[in-house]
Design goal:
The protein is of the alpha/beta class. It has helices at 3-11, 19-29, 44-52, 71-85, 101-108, 119-127, 144-147, 150-163, 180-187, 217-225, 239-251, 265-276, 287-290, 310-317, 335-344, 372-379, 392-423, and strands spanning 34-37, 64-67, 92-95, 114-117, 138-142, 169-174, 192-195, 204-211, 232-236, 256-259, 282-286, 300-303, 326-333, 349-353, 362-363. GO terms for molecular function: helicase activity.
Length: 430
């Protein structure tokens, strides 16, 4: 590590590198192309920042390109990298969709050494002849498994065609494995696999499943909003359900922010800022919008909708308990959902039933034999009858008496009317 970085780390009390940071330092510094895997929240951004930045030459043009799958992750990476680039007098430029392209073009004219962007905007600038990458030395794909899928993979192909240099170092980073043949075929090289996913890292993440009927999930969020010093990213599978829940929370005066595709970059940036500053209890988002987000000391992650696979659960869970901190993952659903989730992920998940709020929840065991009906009864509060069972026959008897008395009353009124009609017109006797 560069001595200037070491001095700064020492000044802030940082003493130990994470396993992934130690493992990739030498290969990256030596110019090797690598495929690096590590759990979420283990410092992968700094893992490639520290070894690569000292290799860059100030005022020598665009030398390092870092690609991320979302605007938020690109901006987050920009903040982290710029913090260390300033130590070496290096310039950093963010190239993301939704941002002011004219401003980005003006900054490009200054030829910053480090570019950090989303594939869509970077490929757009390349196609329009506004971005040249002939001086590039290193290409980083952050969350590589996401970048090498579907339409994004086509954009990566366009970017690589603009580089097409065997001497350019390529590094793939992520928590999920990339098909080696896909990466090798695209970049025409073999990658050194560095897999640190099985290396134990001290962590205190609790995984909880809150037995909750679908129509009660929004109320669960309202209950959690009352907890002091509590914040959470809330994950949804669809933007539609996200917006429905956002409307409910707004009506309940719960401070929250939303992060969804389709929102302007200004709106998304404001949502993240409010959440980071503690102005919002919840950040409502989808998997696509929140991939790789780093919110320091985030207490919890909530799965309003259960993830569709174990990989998605892992990425969601990685937003809390980062760098060994304490965190909680809360999932909503019924007992069938609970069984499905246990098959999906290899972590110890505690079932929670009843109670209001995080510290008051009552922990109960849930077994495979528990019926769906019984599970619903454990978490839906039902008013208990105050009258003992022995009173039930008495209720029926009273009801029967009421019925007879009404019939007698109607019969009496009918006889009175008949008598009235019979005597109508007849003289009255004094």
């Amino acid at each position: 590590m560069d001595s200037r970085f070491e001095e700064r780390l020492t000044s802030v009390g940082f003493t130990t590198l994470t396993p992934i940071q130690s493992a990739v330092a030498e290969p990256l510094a030596n110019g090797q192309s690598i495929d690096a895997l590590a759990p979420t929240g283990t410092g992968k951004t700094l893992a490639f920042t520290w070894p690569l930045l000292p290799k860059l030459v100030p005022e020598d043009g665009e030398q390092l390109l870092i690609l991320a799958p979302s605007q938020e992750l690109a901006m987050q990476t920009t903040r982290v990298v710029r913090d260390w680039a300033n130590v070496l007098s290096l310039k950093v430029l963010s190239l993301t969709g939704g941002a002011n392209i004219k401003h980005q073009l003006d900054r490009l004219k200054k030829h910053p050494e480090i570019l950090i962007g989303t594939p869509g905007r970077v490929s757009e600038l390349i196609n329009n002849g506004k971005l040249k990458l002939k001086r590039l030395r290193t290409l980083i794909l952050d969350e590589a498994d996401e970048l090498l899928r579907d339409d994004t993979a086509n954009q990566i192909d366009i970017i690589w065609d603009a580089i097409d240099d065997d001497d350019v170092q390529v590094a793939l980073f992520g928590a999920t494995e990339v098909d080696p043949s896909t990466a090798s075929g695209l970049f025409n090289r073999e990658f050194l696999r560095i897999d640190q996913r099985q290396v134990a890292i001290p962590t205190e993440i609790k995984h909880e499943f809150w037995l909750t009927a679908r129509d009660q999930r929004q109320k669960r969020l309202r209950q959690l909003a009352a907890e002091k010093r509590f914040q959470a990213i809330v994950f949804f599978n669809t933007t539609k359900q996200l917006k429905i829940t956002a409307s409910f929370l707004a009506h309940e005066h719960v401070a929250m922010a939303t992060l969804a595709r389709g929102d302007s970059s200004t709106t998304r940036a404001k949502s993240l800022t409010n959440f980071r500053q503690g102005k919002a209890k919840f950040l409502l988002t989808t998997d696509a919008a929140a991939r790789g987000l780093d919110i320091p000391d985030l207490p919890a992650v909530i799965n309003f909708d259960l993830p569709r696979d174990g990989e998605t659960y892992t990425h969601r869970a990685g937003r809390t308990g980062r760098m060994g901190k304490v965190g909680t993952v809360i999932s909503f659903g019924n007992d069938h959902d609970f069984r499905d989730l246990k098959k999906m992920v290899a972590v110890d998940i505690q079932a929670i039933s009843g109670g209001k709020g995080l510290p008051k929840a009552e922990k109960v065991p849930v077994t495979e034999k528990t019926s769906h009906k019984n599970q619903n009864e454990t978490h839906v509060a039902r008013p208990k009858s105050k009258s003992p069972k022995v009173d039930q026959p008495r209720k029926k008897k009273v009801a029967a008496t009421d019925s007879v008395s009404r019939q007698e009353r109607f019969a009496k009124e009918k006889r009175a009317k008949r008598k009235h009609r019979k005597n109508k017109g007849k003289p009255k006797h004094n």
